[in-house]
Amino acid sequence: MNLVESWLRLFVGNLERLSKISVNKNNALNLVTRLLKLYKGDYLPDEDNLEVVSRREHYRNLFLSTFLNYTEYLKESPEIVEGFCQDALRVEPLSEPIFRRLIAAYMSQGNRDMAEITLDRCRTLINRYYDSEVSSTTTALLENN
After folding, report:
1. What is the pLDDT along the chain (145 residues), one digit of tens a residue?
2. Which CATH number fits domain 3-143: 2.60.40, 1.25.40, 3.40.50, 1.10.287?
3. Nearest CA to 88 among 121, 59, 64?
4. Which of 3, 28, 51, 85 qualifies as a cystine partner to 102, CB 3.0-4.6 A?
5. What is the C-alpha separation between 62 and 15, in angstroms, rounded?
């Protein structure tokens, strides 16, 4: 086994173990921090064979679902969620669910201006890269407040 294969096994094992840890309000902060240190974006980004692309999507989805699950426990600290979402968007800049969590954090802090700026940024990116509109779930975060 070469160095790259060893690193990949370690990364995959750590990501999968981290995603299975039972989360609560007491350990969520630590778990999100560990998750963001571990996940640095696309798995083997220069590879395009079907198996690698499939695994890449699996790990991205695992990261996103774990991130959203863990940050759910931090909603009472929206300033912390805000920082984590900004960090997560650096590695997953097209993730509408992370944008939603960030918009909700801004709204919880009474910062409607930043929520609107964030929604506009999300709209621009989703439109540019997916030629699509943001979901009604996302826009509703501002319409309901």
Report:
1. 566 677 778 888 899 999 999 999 999 999 999 999 999 888 777 888 888 788 888 989 999 999 999 999 999 999 999 999 999 999 999 999 999 999 999 999 999 999 999 999 999 999 999 999 999 999 999 986 6
2. 1.25.40
3. 64
4. 85
5. 8
Please give the distance of CA 139 from its chain centroid, rounded to a whole number. 18
121 and 86 Cβ atoms separated by less than 8 Å: no
pTM of the model: 0.91
Is residue 88 within 8 A of residue 67, CB to CB? The reply is yes
| Alpha carbons within 13 A on the beta-carbon side of 18 | 27
